[in-house]
Q: What sequence folds into this?
């Protein structure tokens, strides 16, 4: 049986761990709240964009643009958005496995993999998957300064016909307890997935300043940037909710272990006292 | 016929702001354009420059933007701006406006930072003119 000192040391160690997991849980809760707010704000902005695209499409049904027209796929770009840190349950593991499956099963002859987030970069490097570009520091904190550059690189790849389609793989956020692994085609855009435009009456023809082609050419990089923004924010929210759940169960488990150790401590102490009494009685007889 | 229309200003990562407006003047590819209630449907790009909103009380509200899109449909207008520069972002005493003409610069090759600096100069120049003419109204877009 362990000595009283050993048990007390174990209780101290588990208590310290419990304090850390409890603090991490609180931090994740606060970060999750901010991420949810950012998601809601982004939805409003993106839906406005989608309404504009729908208006353009409705007004000009024969309008063609490279960003709307699918072409034979020789090379596909797959952008994977992963986690920043560990200690978030199965979040990183599930996403990494899902992304690896998508990459391996994708029918395109050539693939360019772009990885965002430290954990996913490390995983692909360990698995020997060749990465076209990595953005380890593109996080929610650095979105304002870094996102513009990232989305520009992706858009230029498509514009210069270096890739024929761009896919996004990330963990989408539904609620604090529900998240889904998602694979989404960014380019060419699929307007059938967009929400239907508000039911409108017979409208007058649109005025376009400048031409529809030029408007669409300016609209697309921004649309891409905002979809990427939403995916990163959703991925971050999913990571935080996953970490929150993991830290809650870790804190609860630490509490159980402390209770078990306290019971052990009391039993050991009682056994020690009983033994000493027995020795005293034996000595006196 | 209605004299005002609903105007929504959307910014990435910010709350949607709505106004009851009588007129909006914004920088487009071919110069500044204005639109009022009952206008024919419109879809336009917004170039870096100044946006003026005239509200139902005839207040002129001014702010700058580095670009975006404007849409007017069913008497509802939406402005999707990349970013906005408000009067509170400016230090009117410290900022120096160059002596040369700052209007009509080619903004297509500018970086995002250069666009912001350019719009700031435009705003300072405009605000000084308005102040000299008897005061300027300001507005808050971001929260």
A:
């Amino acid at each position: 049986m362990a000595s009283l000192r050993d048990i007390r040391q174990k209780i101290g160690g588990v208590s310290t761990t419990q304090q850390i997991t409890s603090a991490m849980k609180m931090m994740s809760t606060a970060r999750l709240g901010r991420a949810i707010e950012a998601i809601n704000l982004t939805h409003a902005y993106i839906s406005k964009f989608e309404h504009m695209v729908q208006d353009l499409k409705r007004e000009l049904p024969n309008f063609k643009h490279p960003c709307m027209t699918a072409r034979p796929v020789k090379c596909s770009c797959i952008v994977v958005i992963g986690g920043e840190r560990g200690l978030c349950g199965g979040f990183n593991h599930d996403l990494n496995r899902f992304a690896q499956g998508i990459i391996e099963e994708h029918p395109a002859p050539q693939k360019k993999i772009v990885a965002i987030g430290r954990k996913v970069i490390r995983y692909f490097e360990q698995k020997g998957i060749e990465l076209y570009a990595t953005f380890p520091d593109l996080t929610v904190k650095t979105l304002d300064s870094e996102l513009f550059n990232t989305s520009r690189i992706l858009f230029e790849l498509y514009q210069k016909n270096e890739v024929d389609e761009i896919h996004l793989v990330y963990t989408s956020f539904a609620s604090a307890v529900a998240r889904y692994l998602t694979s989404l085609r960014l380019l060419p855009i699929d307007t059938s997935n967009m929400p239907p435009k508000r039911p409108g009456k017979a409208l007058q023809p649109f005025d376009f300043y400048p031409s529809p082609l030029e408007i669409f050419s300016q609209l697309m990089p921004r649309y891409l940037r905002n979809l990427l923004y939403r995916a990163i924010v959703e991925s971050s929210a999913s990571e935080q909710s996953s970490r929150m759940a993991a830290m809650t169960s870790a804190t609860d488990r630490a509490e159980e272990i402390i209770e078990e150790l306290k019971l052990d401590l009391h039993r050991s102490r009682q056994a020690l006292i009983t033994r000493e009494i027995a020795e005293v009685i034996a000595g006196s007889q | 016929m209605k004299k005002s229309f609903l105007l929504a200003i959307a910014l990435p990562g910010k709350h949607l702001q709505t106004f009851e407006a009588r007129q909006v003047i914004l920088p487009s590819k071919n110069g500044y354009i204005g639109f009022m209630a009952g206008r024919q449907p419109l879809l336009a790009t917004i170039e870096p420059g100044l946006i003026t909103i005239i509200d139902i009380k005839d207040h002129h509200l001014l702010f700058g933007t580095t670009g975006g899109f404007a849409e007017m449909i069913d008497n509802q207008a939406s402005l999707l701006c990349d970013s906005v520069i408000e009067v509170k972002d400016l230090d009117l005493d410290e900022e120096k406006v160059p002596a040369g003409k700052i209007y009509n610069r080619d903004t297509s090759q500018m970086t995002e930072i250069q666009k912001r600096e350019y719009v700031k100069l435009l705003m300072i120049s405009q605000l000084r003119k308005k102040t000299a003419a008897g005061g300027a109204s300001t507005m808050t877009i971001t929260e």
Notes: Chain A touches chain B at residues 38, 41-42, 44-45, 48-49, 51-52, 55-56, 148, 200-201, 203-210, 212, 214-215, 218-219, 222, 226, 229 (CB under 8 Å). The CA atoms of residues 11 and 261 of chain A lie 6 Å apart. The longest strand of chain A covers residues 165-175.
